[in-house]
Amino acid sequence: MTKTILLATTAALTIVAASPALADTVPAAPGQDAQSGDQAVPVFAPDFFRDARPNTALDMVNRIPGFSVNDGDGARGFEGAVGNILINGSRPASKNDTGSNVLGRTVAAQVERIELVRGGAPGIEMQGYSVVANVILKTTSSREHILTTNASLFEGGQDLFGGTYQFTAREGERTWGVTLGDGISSSDSNGAGYVVRTDGNGAVLRNEQYYNDGYGGGNSIRGNYSSPFMGGKIDLTARYGINDWHNINRQTAPDVLRESFYDNDAKSGELGVVYTRPLSEKLKLESRFIHEFEEFDNVSTSRNRDGAVVSPEQMFASNGKGSETILRGLVRYERSPAMDFEAGGEIAYNMLETEQAYSVGGVAVPLPSASVKVEETRGELFGKGTWRINPKWTLESGLRLESSTISQSGDASQEKSFFFAKPRLLATWTPMANTQVRARFERTVGQLDFDDFAASAEFADESVFGGNVNLSPESRWVSELTFEKRFWGEGIVSLGLRHDEITDAIDLIPLDGGLAAVGNIGDGTLDQLALNVTIPTTRLGLSGGKFGFRNTWNKTEVTDPTTGETRAISGVRPTQATITFQQDITSWKLQWGGAWIPLLGQKNFQPDQVSGWRGTDYYEMWAEYKPTPTLSIRAQVNIWNDFDQHRIVFANRETRPVAFVEERFVDPRTFWQLRVRKTF
Fold it and tell me: Full-prediction pTM beyond 0.70?
């Protein structure tokens, strides 16, 4: 019923917002303007954000109607992996120094304007995105300090505390800075509950109390430097950090104890160098070098006692290292203000080397691909053109040619080569400054997770996975159509339809010995409907408020490698509607808001079991007080109604009789988040 009401409501809003009369009679919000002759690029001046009293540039970008910050989608190489944020028309110097990181250490007073580029524009690196935010900074000299402290306080769980210090100095076109971080992380599904396991006839096998807690943290240092250099500009960034993660799962009953522990320790770092230089009035060179590395040490342990029976301790340990190195260069030719071309190439090297051991009662158990070194060498040539045909039409087209070789050594030796042609076409129609239609057609190739080549374990679910030496990258032909309407200054309705034809879909496959592994299970499809609605409430009688609704409905299909039946792809959420409201109360120097997720969840399919989780009624309420332009105090409470996990385990993969059904009912802990931020 809730979904039906929401769909009806948002459909009505779409029709109303699409009315030309409404759009033409409503002026834009103060400070919002469009560049002359360029309807596809609305410009947001600092006055647009005045009521929000932003402390940082990130606060400003997060207030742009209909725009959500994306820090990258894990795409191969550099393309698409660095998100939808530009700083002065350029990407950050490394993949991990994301746009949100850069904006988070930039005080709001340094922002001259923000351009929202929709559908592409000459001279703008869209990098596969249909919409990007280009933050233009002032070139005045300044010294900026941002000090932030954070706390996450859990009801009956592990409290966490951290913070960051950021310093940035600007002298005209020269910028340098340092960031010191003490980060925290936790699972929002931590909590207590109970587990009920029944056999195929419904008889109770287990009825036990359940407890889960996952938390971690990390310390890091980052340095940044940007300056004119040899007739151009150089950008440097370097980072080094250490982090840890811990997870505890415990089930208890009278004379019963089942425990599993996971501990991870890792060190990581990166170096990024970007050099840009004009070669002529219309020709520009950009070269980029990125190197990332990681070392890790993981241990999983499981101990069980059921009455007088003590099961042998299980232990899975892994350690290793990985790296990625990218060298990229391109030239951009601006034929005219309405047309430009770019061409270039990229070479990359990825590596993972890991050693793993699995034992039961101290006795080693052989695993497929326990000692693995995986290497990928990839080269890519690309070309792209952007043509602003007129103020209403923009066309972007391009082609990338990729060749790669993946080799594996250790317990198994193998080498595979791949070639992909990846065309892209993006057409944008902007009949009015507040109305836009975008059509996209392209081929994408996913980045393999090299961890999937090696064995792994999830003792909390009593699962051990083998490695797969035969993994191939997943590729997709993507067709997408998006309609966007802006109204009432900060209002927006965006409706998107998407269809993916998937080749070599990645999911779980059966292995000999009763194991499973990540693998390619054949072709599949994705059909998607995405809706994003923001409604300013000032005209409805509630000053300074904004109501929001967003959801993405996904339907996937693939053939199960065990049963041969058509099913959904593991890990894809069919729906996750989010309803939000926020309000600026300028007289109180206060902002407040909240969000409600009525339902979320997903299913996962393994050769010998079907599992999934379901959460209902997730709430968050927050308030942020800004007594001065340089001080922000924010408090937030997060409340779950429930978080349930379901698992059906089969006694035989082929005939699939039910061995047992397990229901895990969790009441996630309420937790509070506190943040104090001072800029000076």
Answer: yes
pLDDT in tens, 72-120: 765 566 765 678 888 888 888 777 777 888 888 888 888 999 999 887 7
Domain residue ranges of the chain, discontinuous segments joined by + = 31-138
Question: CB atoms < 10 A from the CB of 283, how many?
Answer: 12
- Fold for the domain defined by 31-138: Ferric Hydroxamate Uptake Protein; Chain A, domain 1 (2.170.130)
**Of 526, 432, 536, 478, the residue nearest 130 (C-alpha):** 478
Do 553 and 568 form a contact (C-beta atoms < 8 A)?
A: no
Residue whose C-alpha is closest to residue 381's, from 340, 336, 422: 422
Vertex 551 angle, CA 3 and 101, to 5°: 150
Tell me the two tokens of residue 641.
């109604």
Going by C-alpha positions, the residue among 44, 61, 51 that lies closest to residue 115 is 44
Instruction: Report, as an integer, the average pLDDT of 445-470.
Output: 79
Enumerate residues 6+ apart whose C-beta is below 8 A from 623. Answer: 590, 591, 592, 634, 635, 636
Cα–Cα distance, 368 to 451 (Å, whole number)? 13
| 123-127, 324-328, 485-489, 625-629: least confidently modelled range | 123-127
Cβ atoms within 10 Å of 343's Cβ, excluding its own: 15
Q: How far apart are CA 288 and CA 71, in angstroms?
A: 18
Given a cut of 80, is residue 184 above it in pLDDT? yes
Scanning the structure block, which residue is given the tokens 């009432």?
488
**Span 123-160, pLDDT tens digits:** 777 776 778 899 998 888 889 999 999 999 988 778 89
Distance (Å, whole) CA 148 – CA 166: 9
d(CA 135, CA 6) in angstroms, rounded, equals 34
The dihedral built from the CA positions of residue 102, 107, 112 and 114, taken in this order, carries a sign that is positive
Residue that wins the pLDDT comparison between 19 and 443:
443
Q: 615 - beta bridge partners? A: 600, 643
Q: Which of 512, 397, 408 is nearest to 469 (CA)?
A: 408
Taking the CA of residue 344 as centre, how many other CA atoms within 13 Å lie in the half-sphere pointing to its CB? 19
Which one-letter amino acid corresponds to residue 244?
Answer: D
Q: What pLDDT, in 10s, does the model give residues 595-609?
A: 999 999 999 999 999
What pLDDT sits at residue 6?
39
Phi/psi of residue 541, nearest 5 degrees: 100, 0
Give one word for 576, left, alpha or beta, with left for phi > 0 and alpha for psi -120 to 50: beta
How high is the pLDDT of residue 79? Answer: 65
Q: What count of Cα atoms within 13 Å lies in the side-chain half-sphere of residue 432?
A: 14
390's CB contacts (< 8 A; 6+ apart) are none
Instruction: Residue 566: count other Cβ atoms within 10 Å of its Cβ.
Output: 10
Computed over every residue of the chain, the mean pLDDT equals 88
C-beta separation of 346 from 383 below 8 A = no
